[in-house]
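**Reference record**
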Amino acid sequence: GVDCSDHEVNIKILLDAAVASGEMTRPQRDELLASMTDAVAELVLDDNRAQTLGLNLARRQSLAMVNVLARYLNVLESEGWLDRSLEFLPTNRQLAERQASGVGLTTPEFAVLMAYTKSANVHEMLRTDLPDDAYLQPDLVRYFPPDLRERFADRIHSHRLRREIVATQVSNQMVNLSGISFDNRMTEDTGAGVVDVTRAWIAARDIFGFVEQWTEIEALVAGDGAPGARGSGLGAGVKLDTQLELFLDLRQMVERGVLWLLRHRRPPMDIAVAVAEFKAPMARLAASLEAAIPGRTREQMFATEAGRLAAQVPESLAQRSVVWPMLHTGFDVIELAQRRGADIATVAGAYWSVFDVLEVGWLWDAVGALPRADRWQTQARSALRDDLLVALADLADDALSVGSAKAWAAANERVVSRTMQMFMEIRRSGTLDVGILSVALRQLRNLSLVTQRPHA
């Protein structure tokens, strides 16, 4: 109801200005309003479907995210955004008790938290010039029904509430797609504020085609009567669990892309420049990455793809989905290709050949499996992942200087063998905590410092 009312008010503001200027008469305005009833209803229903799906995904991760959400509740309360007792939200002690009994927040509690998150984010965005960024004009235009987008384009761009509309549109989309605690987790990991996180998210959204791929997953027809399907007929028989798994894999890819942008681009980031730099090459890389990945990792990808095909996921989506967990490495690959003036596929091949030659799949998995029960564990895990990506990019650069990863390893056989022996000892120890993995990563980074480039 509120959403519908907001659309009505904002459309009337737009059209009343047209009436006042003589572009149309009052009866023409009333007729146009009536003709847009179904279009406005669909926009409102789209918003509701997106929020419902966001809540379903939140419930899916409810138990795993208890500690993260407890920290987030503390932040919102300490900053004065909400009063837990007033909103009947659980205390930290109650959350701990729920966690011990195997449950997390309920759907109504997530709904309250989602509302406060969106409200706080809009408030923060309106304090800055982000809503005025010309790059976000399409987000403003998409708020209005199709009949208004061309006919009154100029008036949409000059709408007196355009900043509020843009901020609300972006905040709603970011929270619905990337999760209720997303921006707070990014802040914990990087120290960036909500608005800088939002800039990076918008860039990653468009670099990866997040919305388009999300819509494609949403259009799958669930075979178990799951709500939210648009009835496209694609992927008929896909189970809800498979659908949600695809959503979460896609979300994680974009989240890792946001982290890369926050760590490699100084704020305030120019969204248009970042998208122009990475979108086209990332699309080319996404289409060719599966072929660039050798060895065990490739076998795991094939197994995942086969499982999704068996689960009735359309072939094109199944093929793309298996590269999502690795595609965030594309930022380093693209930068290295640009620096060297090399073909992206060649650089990607060197990157993943180094990964395979050094057999660091176990290290990749071990970092991902580290606990994140508190903020410090989360930051340590994130720092180790960053160190791993930096080391792989440096070593790929070394391999390209020699000609290939195998040639590089052969030219530096002694130090490479010593490193791999140390890796074997670490794996045999059975202890893969932050301290041990830090030692492994230091050894990996040292390889780039001590190995030779015979033909460089």
About this structure: The chain has 25 helices and no strands.
